[in-house]
Specification:
- The chain is an all-alpha fold.
- It is built from 14 helices and no strands.
- α3 runs parallel beside α5, α5 packs antiparallel against α6 and α9 runs antiparallel to α10.
């Protein structure tokens, strides 16, 4: 029986800044570049976003501390997606050591918690998660709040706390609906669906993965489109529909590879290998799982 392997490191895109005062002309020009990077962070493969960030470094003279922090968060997420974890963690630790407004500090805690938990640094990961859950009360942005609740939903469910996992998953969805943003709904469906799947509510999870796939396609987010395919396939196998499951998981693998989300690809391949073993196709399973090991 296929089970989730761990956090997929799927974090919401960085919300655009809210200016406390009228920005200078230079800051306004730089903000256009920041906004472009934020859009690429959602719609383009991670390596392309990282290359873009490298290309604009000489254009950032006069950038505000908030703008530089936003770009650092986008860069950290890009390194996470291509499995350059040490680089991402260094960026996040440097951010946390500095002065950040609550909204950017919350985003930093979310990414740091997600990454730390994924690479088995559980003590640090739960410390960052708890800090984020405390800080979200000081942040008005429902998109940022939705992100930290989604992470809490996943990990409480992973640890067997069904009540909190589902409660936080529902809160994630409520906050996403409050934003009115289709991409926030895309991410929230994934978080709620995973909480339901982890708690054995397969039919509910399947429904939310299907609804989430529609939202992610509308949002033109290639990472989440690939993930939703793989997740739907995983649940189809859980409910005894292996032929359909194989089609969806294989498509999820291909889409994850196209988007540059390496962990998403290897997680889906591992799920596919397990499916093949359950179907008695041992030689094919061995080939897929050996590729994952490589």
């Amino acid at each position: 029986m296929i089970r989730p392997l761990g956090s997929l490191l799927l974090c919401i895109g960085l919300a655009l800044p809210v200016w406390a005062q009228q920005p200078s002309d230079t800051e306004s020009q730089i903000q256009q570049v920041v906004d472009q990077a934020a859009r690429m962070d959602v719609t383009q493969p991670a390596r392309e976003t990282l290359d873009f960030l490298d290309s604009i470094e000489n254009q950032l003279e006069g950038a505000s501390p908030s703008q530089l922090a936003q770009l650092s968060l986008i860069r950290a997420r890009g390194h996470i997606l291509v499995t350059e974890y040490d680089t991402a963690l260094e960026i996040l630790e440097n951010l946390m050591a500095g002065t950040l407004p609550p909204r950017l500090r919350l985003r930093t805690y979310e990414l740091a918690a997600n990454l730390s938990l994924h690479i088995d640094r559980y003590e640090a990961g739960f410390e960052y998660l708890n800090r984020g859950m405390e800080l979200q009360e000081q942040v008005d942005d429902p998109a940022l709040k939705s992100g930290i609740f989604g992470l809490a939903a996943y990990w409480h469910s992973q640890l067997g706390d069904e009540t909190k996992g589902l409660e936080y998953g529902q809160r994630t969805m409520e906050l996403a609906l409050e934003t009115g943003d289709i991409r926030e709904l895309c991410v929230a469906y994934e978080k709620l669906g995973q909480a339901e799947e982890l708690n054995g509510l397969y039919e509910q999870a399947l429904t939310h993965y299907e609804e989430g796939l529609q939202a992610c396609q509308e949002a033109e987010d290639p990472v989440f489109v690939g993930v939703m395919h793989a997740l739907k396939g995983r649940v189809l196998f859980e409910v005894g529909r292996p032929e359909e499951a194989e089609t969806w998981i294989r498509r999820g693998i291909a889409l994850a590879a196209e988007s540059g989300f390496e962990d998403g690809m290897t997680d889906a391949m591992t799920n596919y290998g397990e499916l093949l073993l359950e179907l008695g196709r041992d030689r094919e399973a061995s080939s897929v799982l050996l590729e994952v090991l490589d």
